[in-house]
Amino acid sequence: MEEQVVQFCWLEAEQCRDLPLPCYHSELAAGMDVAAAVQQPTILMPGDIQLIPSGFSVAIPPGYELQVRPRSGLAVKQGVTIINSPGTIDADYRGEVKIALVNLGREAQTVHRGDRVAQLVLSPVVRGRLELVESLPQTIRGAGGFGHTGV
């Protein structure tokens, strides 16, 4: 597997020694789990959206992004997911990585310090160049949108 270097920096190293580094939890995992750096338990009521701190910032290689994705177990078992999934951390961003959690479940959920709340996936970026044209080439599908195939 190809690897790229993502530089990682604790924002306040002394206060983050109890937190694990983002890491892959299996040999072929695509995403690195991220722990919550909340100072005290944070309650997410049903429908609530909160930014959860990670306690770190990153430097991503040019031509890449870090995608912030939900952890499937958290989403399925508790209804907690990422509101802007996938979130994007651009290669030129140097601020704290924050996780935009939403509770879509029916019960309040508590985020504790060190809970794994998201995963980060390093992904290549292909930038498009827009070209203004008078009309688009025709396809069989045409303008058929949501549900047009009957599914």
UniProtKB/TrEMBL annotation:
Hydrolase found in the keyword field: yes
Cofactors, names only: Mg(2+)
All copies of domain dUTPase-like, residue ranges: 19-150
The entry's keywords: Hydrolase, Magnesium, Metal-binding, Nucleotide metabolism
Gene Ontology terms for molecular function: dUTP diphosphatase activity; magnesium ion binding
Keyword Signal: no
Catalysis: reaction(s): dUTP + H2O = dUMP + diphosphate + H(+)
Residues noted as binding substrate in the record, renumbered to the chain: 71-73, 84, 88-90
Pathway(s) where this gene product acts: Pyrimidine metabolism; dUMP biosynthesis; dUMP from dCTP (dUTP route): step 2/2
Primary enzyme class: hydrolase
Pfam families documented for this protein: dUTPase
GO biological process: dUMP biosynthetic process; dUTP catabolic process
Entry's EC annotation: 3.6.1.23
Superkingdom field: Bacteria
Physiological role: This enzyme is involved in nucleotide metabolism: it produces dUMP, the immediate precursor of thymidine nucleotides and it decreases the intracellular concentration of dUTP so that uracil cannot be incorporated into DNA.
Family named by the database record: Belongs to the dUTPase family.
Protein name: Deoxyuridine 5'-triphosphate nucleotidohydrolase
Lineage of the organism: Bacteria, Pseudomonadati, Thermodesulfobacteriota, Desulfobulbia, Desulfobulbales
Gene of this entry: dut
